[in-house]
Amino acid sequence: MGSSGKSLRADVGSLFIVGLEGVxxxxxxxxxxxxxxxxxxxxxxxxxxxAGQTRALLDAxxxxxxxRAFRCVDVEGGTVNRLRDTLAPIAAAQxxxxxxxxxxxxxxGELIADAARAFGFNTSFAPVLDLxxxxxxxxxxxxxxxxxxxxxxxxxxxxxxxxxxxxxxxCGKHYPGLGGGMVDSHLETPVIGRGWKxxxxxxxxxxxxxxxxxxxxxxxxxxxxxTKDKKRPASASPFWTDVLRKKIxxxxxxxxxxxxxxxxxxxxxxxxxxxxxxxxxxxMALVCHKAELVIAAYEAVxxxxxxxxxxxxxxTSRAKFVAHERARLVRKPAKALSASxxxxxxxxxxxxxxxxxxxxxx
Length: 362
Description:
Elements: H1 3-13, E1 16-19, H2 27-36, E2 40-43, H3 51-62, E3 70-73, E4 75-77, E5 80-81, H4 93-97, H5 102-118, E6 123-124, H6 137-140, H7 149-165, E7 171-175, H8 196-203, H9 205-209, E8 216-219, H10 238-247, E9 253-256, H11 262-265, H12 270-280, E10 284-287, H13 291-307, H14 309-329, H15 339-361
Parallel strand pairs: 1-2, 1-10, 2-3, 3-6, 7-8, 8-9, 9-10
Antiparallel strand pairs: 4-5
Helix pairs in contact: 1-13, 5-7, 5-15, 12-13, 13-14
């Protein structure tokens, strides 16, 4: 293979963040990580036993990734906190936002970051910026901070500031908004009936407010039939990327939600989905679980880039941008905590939860 072919393979691989199977890196995983060369990994509860083991897994996996790899986890608080069983539960976004106390919101971001850093992560996919609307309660519950755009933006700003202060990258999600969704996009494609005027005035307002403060924006797999792109999931829709880039003027990394989710796979097989999300304007894509689907997505994008000069230029441009962002954003992992420091962190989290409960009662 010539140097140009190797370069294209590296470019394609660098547009993915991938999941792993268990608590230790297998030989098979090491081989396919070396082949793909992703820009990072994302871990889930299935991968996390304790801080030392998690750091070792991250070190081993990112040694096979692109330089300055993203080490990602979902720590939002509440029901979505991959560290709750090994460290401590953290109050949910809606519980914290309901206090109306900015200092508590800022502390929420700081503790999310402190927890992530303790396990060796540099990125947590938080905060959720979806509106807490009645339609989505059964799916989103307390993940959504507030019912008003102002309340969501206030919470998001403080959380992002707290995370930034502690050196962990944040991510606004799930653009352009799941507040009107009534089904779980992990299983099906949500069809959200909110019109453009409501979406622009309400769901998208937090993204306008916070456009300069989010290292990542994660795009969901919902469809919005009362907008210009009536049928396609947002992650595969050039319309929604144009809104984010051209109308909102967001300049950070645009990331597709997991390509293994039913919300996109019920619309397209993963090989087509992987190509279409990059055609639509995504800078990166998540493939979070199965190695065979990581390889299928990678090979499909590579094949299309080899076939189409136009698509190849898209891929090389995105890869250059992602490499620039990794170099700009990613720092060395924080040092491991001692047993006493780990215990103190757990104590701070539990004390914070008590403060949030008191704040909600005030």
